[in-house]
Amino acid sequence: MSDDTPTPAVRLRDVRLDRGGRTVLDGIDFEAPRGGIVAVLGPSGSGKSTLLAALTGELPPAAGTVEVLGQVVPTRQRELLELRKHVGVLLQGNGLLTDLTAAENVALPLRTHARLPKPVLDRLVAMKLGAVGLHAAANLYPRELSGGMARRVALARALALDPPLMIYDEPLTGLDPIAAGVIMRLIARLNASLGMTSIIVSHHVHETLPISDRAIVIANGGIVFSGTPAELERSEDPLIRQFLAGSPDGPIRFDGALGAEAA
Ligand SMILES: Nc1ncnc2c1ncn2[C@@H]1O[C@H](COP(=O)(O)OP(=O)(O)O)[C@@H](O)[C@H]1O
Ligand SMILES: [Mg+2]
User: Fold this and answer.
1) Using a 6 Å cutoff on CB, does residue 46 contact ligand 1?
2) What is the DSSP string of 229-244?
3) Percent of the chain residues topping a pLDDT of 70
4) I need a surface site. Which of 30, 53, 87, 254 has the fewest CB within 10 A?
5) Atom of ligand 1 minimally distant from the CA of 255
6) DSSP character at residue 249
7) 91 touches ligand 1 (CB under 6 Å)
8) What is the tens place of the pLDDT at every residue in 21-32?
9) Does the keyword Nucleotide-binding apply (predicted)?
């Protein structure tokens, strides 16, 4: 790659990630170009959330380098907090605070990271809720929201600081098919209209691929596919076929111990 190419939003080079004294992923090379949507797919337990933990700095790599927005993910807390302002994260579960309204939840990151006069804050919160189609729900509490609405409030909160990079961990979990479709279209629309880069971790292959520009599949401790969604659908690799078909039998090892040799 030449020096005048813009740095990718995310770049991992020969990364190894360990958890609980065990190697979960090894030999990970991966780039997310700016402006696109990348799907990180793989069966449960394959290490998708572990990969995201490396991007947010929660899990430092045991080997290799992890770069986010052109910078090696720092280990020092202060610098890490600074980087995290630029990375919107929607983790599994919504993480909404139950005793705050939708608007107050969305206001949280703005209160934490920016000192704004109340009218400006209110305006920004209204804009973020409007962006996810929930202007009218501002004063509702999480328990008064449907699952899909709650997910959209969490999305508005993740977008509060206008992050250039959004990371989603299983954004469809617990949603019915209609709500899931709404969320996926919203993610695609926001990515385009706000000019962000999005990384979507999901085991919902058939819902995630249509909005993705690129996909990687992780299994057996490493990346087993990297390419476009069309290339993925066409793949004749038995491992990929097994994964796409959701079959328990085949070359993907489930819940087994992954040795360091797995890749
Ligand atoms: N905090 C942890 N401590 C020890 N092992 C963990 C921890 N988190 C995840 N693991 C293990 O790492 C592997 C990958 O988990 P995870 O990244 O959550 O998979 P996925 O998100 O693809 O379902 C699993 O075998 C899981 O048991
Ligand atoms: Mg996970």
Assistant:
1) yes
2) HHHHHH---HHHHHHH
3) 94
4) 254
5) 25
6) S
7) no
8) 999 999 999 999
9) yes
In a domain, 74, yes or no: yes
More confident residue, 2 or 55: 55
**C-alpha dist (Å) from residue 215 to 42, 89, 206, 207:** 10, 19, 12, 13
Distance CA 3, CA 36 (A): 20
19 lines ligand 1 (CB under 6 A): yes
Ligand 2 center to residue 44 CA distance, Å? 7
What is the CATH number for 55? 3.40.50.300
The count of structural domains within the chain is 1
Residue 148 inside a domain? The answer is no
Which 3-state string (H, E, C) describes 54-108? HHCCCCCCCEEEEEECCEECCCCHHHHHHHHCCEEEECCCCCCCCCCCHHHHHHH
Ion ligand 2 neighbours, Cβ < 5 Å: 48-49
pLDDT at 232: 96
User: Listing from the earlier edge strand, what are the strands of the sheet with 37-41?
Assistant: 87-90, 165-169, 197-202, 37-41, 214-219, 222-227
What is the spatial distance between Cα 153 and Cα 136, in angstroms, rounded to a whole number?
Answer: 12
Tokens of 204: 């919902």
Q: Is 47 in the pocket of ligand 1 (CB under 6 A)?
A: yes
- Which residue lies with its CA nearest to atom 26 of ligand 1? 45
Give a yes or no: residue 170 inside a domain.
yes
Q: Which domain holds residue 211?
A: 19-86+165-176+199-251
121: phi then psi, degrees, rounded to nearest 5? -60, -50
pLDDT digits (tens, 9 = 90+) for 2-19: 556 679 999 999 999 999
